[in-house]
Here is the input.
Amino acid sequence: MERSRPAAAISDVDAFRDLSAANREQLARGLRYLDYAKGAAVLRKGERVSGAFVVISGHLRVFTLSADGQEATLYAINAHETCVLALNCIFNDLLYPAWVESGAPTRVAIIPGSLFRTLFDSEAAIRNMTVQAFSTLVFRLMGELEEIHSSSLEQRLTHFLLLRAASDRTVQLTQQEIASHLGTTREVIARALGQLTARGQIQTGRRRIVITDPVRLADEVGGVRRKRTARRRR
Here is the structure.
């Protein structure tokens, strides 16, 4: 009889594997897990944060809303990463400044704020994880800003599809979900996808996009960046 796999746990995250015995005991008493279905609301703007959020499996999407209600993704929190904005809230007693939803079935470990501060003070691995989280966020936000200011929407869409494509070249997202990630409307994304389809680079279906010519798509993105770099060197 096949045994079921144990649920993912905080011990799967490197930073929490070698805690002192006293801190492991405190963590076991204070830690709680929450499981979210895809698209579930995790945090809302203006909400008080109860603790540090560590993604055990799946991933979260942190996004903002424009005045007209359009969503735009700020960054993703992947498995074994922590939410930097939540850390900032618990260290500085702030309300959460964005919205968070699960981008896939996701398990999150929540460590009470006071306990996380204790771990931060006493465990080098937790300090290293926190610094790495802030560094990663800076690089991701810089990349997003560069894409927004230096690329057309079609170029950003092309880059997004290449990043999100599975090994079978499919992207399992709706047009509305893609629009929310890129901060635009479904109609604009539909037109851009139509242009890629007309050029034979993708095929579209219900909740499914197939990249039929990934090499050409990658060449287009690379060509744009090479031209941009050449201009900077002049």
User: Anything to note?
Assistant: The domain at 10-148 is CATH 2.60.120.10 (Jelly Rolls). The mean pLDDT is 83. The longest helix spans residues 124-150. The first strand starts at residue 32 and ends at 36.
